[in-house]
Specification:
12 helices; about 290 residues; elongated; alpha/beta; five-stranded parallel β-sheet; binds guanosine-5'-monophosphate
Length: about 290
């Protein structure tokens, strides 16, 4: 009798949590944080799937797809989330929260700029950093050595293989990949999250494997593919840069061919004819005036 009374009370308390989320009085991330702090609380005993179903516009099909891409079983309760599942779920919920239901309200956006090697992603993102201060550019970590003129903490965080391994193990990356079969590159998760919490739009300039990972873990991210005006122009830019050996150039061209074939997976395509025009087009997708 007492046990069934307690079960009814617990169900009611969970229903109250869900209603608060549906009414917009509580954020989903707030519920997750409360549930992680106390697994026995109403928030902690709430199933993640039920929480997702409280989000406006998220039906069972999309909720199940999201759970699958997050690697969370449909029966999992918030308080029982694993160490690697927790940040993934919070990132996902925050990217959903960035969406606005009103047409004219500003939304924070995560925009991924990818494209073949040497297409000028770096030049476009540098131009954006220098000319659009409202856009936060994510600084990646990499195991490759700095090129002349590159500054640690600005161009990249240059880290050792051991440090990169540690960052993977600690779940510090939103995504990471081995690029050109050589060095590893990854996007640190927390600066992206902090910027979005502050209402800033964030730009990631990463490779295509990384873009696919972001799409899987944050389906609300906007994926932009930067295209060269022509293939010949891409080859000219790659050779013209003169920073890579002939062997390295050949390797990068081979990668670029495969990468160009992925353009249809992206939400938007931008041709990099003039840097300032391409930058403007990318920034226009970020909902910043
Ligand atoms: P580079 O060595 O020329 O600076 O960069 C090589 C490639 O790594 C570029 O295609 C660049 O977009 C990609 N890259 C840079 N940072 C990241 C990152 O954090 N994650 C992934 N997946 N790729 C990155």
């Amino acid at each position: 009798m007492a046990a069934s009374k307690a079960a009814v009370a617990a169900r009611r308390a969970r229903a109250a949590v869900k209603n608060a989320v549906i009414a917009g009085e509580r954020s989903t991330t707030d519920v997750v944080r409360a549930g992680l702090a106390d697994a026995a609380s109403p928030e902690g005993t709430l199933r993640v799937r039920e929480l997702l179903l409280c989000i406006p516009g998220l039906g069972p099909v999309r909720a199940d797809r999201a759970l699958e891409s997050l690697g969370i079983s449909p029966s999992k309760r918030v308080g029982g989330l694993g160490r690697h599942q927790q940040p993934k779920l919070i990132d996902y919920l925050e990217s959903r929260a960035g969406r606005s239901t009103a047409d004219d309200a500003p939304t924070t956006r995560l925009v991924v700029l990818a494209g073949p090697t040497a297409v000028g992603k770096g030049t476009v993102s540098t131009y954006i950093r220098e000319n659009y201060p409202d856009v936060r550019l994510s600084v990646s970590a990499t195991t490759r050595a700095p090129r002349p003129g590159e500054i640690d903490g600005v161009s990249y965080y240059f880290v050792t293989d051991d440090e990169f391994d540690r960052m993977i193990a600690e779940g510090e990356f939103l995504e990471w990949a081995t690029v050109h079969n050589q060095s590893r590159y990854g996007t640190p998760r927390s600066p992206v999250r902090e910027a979005m919490n502050e209402g800033k739009s964030v730009l990631l300039e990463i490779d295509i494997q990384g873009a696919r990972q972001v799409r899987a873990s944050m389906p609300e991210a906007v994926l932009v593919f930067l295209l060269p005006p022509t293939w010949e122009e891409l080859v000219r830019r790659l050779i013209g840069r003169g920073t890579e050996s002939a062997e390295e150039q050949a390797r990068r061209l081979a990668t670029a061919k495969v990468e160009l074939a992925a353009q249809n997976e992206f939400d938007h395509r931008v041709v990099n004819n003039k840097v300032e025009d391409a930058a403007r087009e990318v920034v226009d997708l970020m909902n910043i005036s």
